[in-house]
Design brief:
Blueprint lengths: L1 H18 L7 H24 L26 E2 L2 E2 L2 E6 H4 L12 H12 L7 E6 L13 H18 L7 E5 L9 H4 L1 E6 L4
Parallel strand pairs: 4-5
Antiparallel strand pairs: 1-2, 3-6, 4-6
Helix pairs in contact: 4-5
């Protein structure tokens, strides 16, 4: 019996000695791990501060196609007379820089104007006036802004004639930069003036 009790005591003592051992890290190990983590965080913060922010890439937006909206009628009848009406089209809509060929995308605009000239203003005389900005001519074959503006007015006359507007009703005039508007872009224009009738 004493032998059994002694064996049990030894077993409990051995278990206690073995069971009390823990796999938990010591305070020194925890402090070291904590310091390592702090160092890693500091290193990441430094890298993030040195990395430039992402650059936003602008997505090109499709340019709206020019459309023609007839201007509000400025004709007023006084007995048998009518006042003149001016239809203005931006030069940048009609032509490339320094060019006198009507852009393909501007043809719908001029088609609408031709219909109006033959319908609402049928029979009335038309003056087509070209205007430019004040920048001197550098890269095109035109010797002056006046020459470029007249060539553009003639190009519009030819296009309108091809759409059925009688050439005998139309004259062309080039004013160059003589009648500027508030901006250079607004100054580049072609005015289609429907003359008054008596």
């Amino acid at each position: 019996m004493k032998r059994i009790a002694l064996c049990l005591m030894l077993a409990v003592t051995s278990f206690g000695a073995v069971g009390c051992k823990s796999n938990e890290p010591s305070k020194e190990q925890l402090a070291k791990e904590n310091q390592d983590l702090r160092n890693q965080i500091a290193d990441l913060n430094t890298r993030m501060a040195q990395t430039p922010p992402p650059v936003a890439v602008a997505t090109p937006q499709p340019q709206p196609q020019p459309t023609y909206t007839p201007p509000p009628s400025r004709s007023e009848s006084f007995g048998s007379s009518q006042q003149e009406v001016t239809i203005e089209v931006g030069g940048d809509v009609l032509f490339a820089s320094g060019q006198t060929t009507v852009k393909p995308e501007a043809r719908k605009t001029l088609d609408g104007i031709a219909r109006q000239l033959n319908g609402q203003y049928g029979g009335r005389q038309i003056r087509v006036v070209g205007h430019t900005d004040s920048d001197p001519i550098r890269k095109s074959k035109w010797g002056s802004n006046e020459a470029l503006s007249l060539a553009r007015a003639n190009a519009v006359v030819e296009y309108l004639a091809s759409k059925g507007v009688s050439r005998s009703r139309m004259t062309a005039d080039g004013r160059g930069a003589q009648q500027p508007k508030a901006t250079k872009a607004a100054s580049r224009r072609v005015e289609i003036v429907v003359l008054g009738s008596n």
